[in-house]
Amino acid sequence: MSRPIAVLGGTGPEGFGLALRWARAGETVIIGSRNLQRAQDAAAKIKTAVGTGALVSGEENAAACAEADLLVLTIPFEGHANLLKQIKPAIQPGSIVIDATVPLAASVGGRATRTLGVWQGSAAQETAELVPKGVAVAAAFQNVSAELLNAEVPVECDVIVCSDDPIAGKIARELAAKIPGVRALDGGKLENARILEQITALLIGMNIRHKGHSGIRITGLPDAAYS
Q1: Domains in the chain, start-ordered, CATH in brackets?
Q2: Which candidate, 115, 142, 3, 129, places its Cα nearest to that of 69?
Q3: What is the C-alpha separation between 201 and 186, in angstroms, rounded?
């Protein structure tokens, strides 16, 4: 995949882990953040881990959108709508937005083991409502452990991708498959994203109880489902 990937919220654990994995896979990655210095520091850290040849840089969120038409949202839910409104003028026509946001109750002082109700149905559907017309949205990566993404181990997890746009869904699955150990699956329409978000809360509870970094695997499907 030759197009740059802008990871908005790339200084947080999930975004940094995804950016690190894609940089290791040889992708061009732009770390997006509200703070330029934090974005540049994160990019420098990835270069140290991957090598000076890593194609990674850091920008403020709006500048990252201006440089890439493939955007990955890895931001806390409390800042989700505000960020989308701020970057909307900078999002290029025809862009693809892959949303990994989960509306955890912890964002409003509740428990991380349950999700908040979202008027649109899910965080990803809120994104679809707020981005410019013609921008495609996919939901993915909600159920992948940030700790494992940041470690030097295969990530034994299935990434389920939900989207109303076939091309956006295909690109999201291709990105997922670049992470060693990950299998990517078509999870159907974007409205199914609410299920992925709820699974995240379930996994967090399991991780707390069992002190692990759980993911999900779907069984019983033919090999072609993962191609």
Answers
A1: 5-226 (3.40.50.720)
A2: 3
A3: 21
Length of the chain, in residues: 227
pLDDT of 25 higher than 60: yes
Locate tokens 């295909």: which residue? 170
pTM given for the model: 0.93
Contacts 24+ apart (CB under 8 A), 211-219: 213/145, 213/147, 213/148, 214/145, 215/143, 215/144, 215/145, 215/148, 215/155, 215/156, 215/157, 215/158, 216/143, 216/157, 216/158, 216/160, 217/156, 217/157, 217/158, 217/183, 218/158, 218/160, 218/185
Q: Find how far residue 211's CA is from the centre of its chain.
A: 23
Confidence grade of residue 148 (pLDDT, cut at 50, 70, 90): very high
H-assigned helices in the chain: 13-24, 36-50, 61-67, 80-87, 123-130, 146-149, 166-177, 193-210
Tell me the pLDDT tens digit for each residue of 40-78: 999 999 999 999 889 999 999 999 999 999 999 999 888
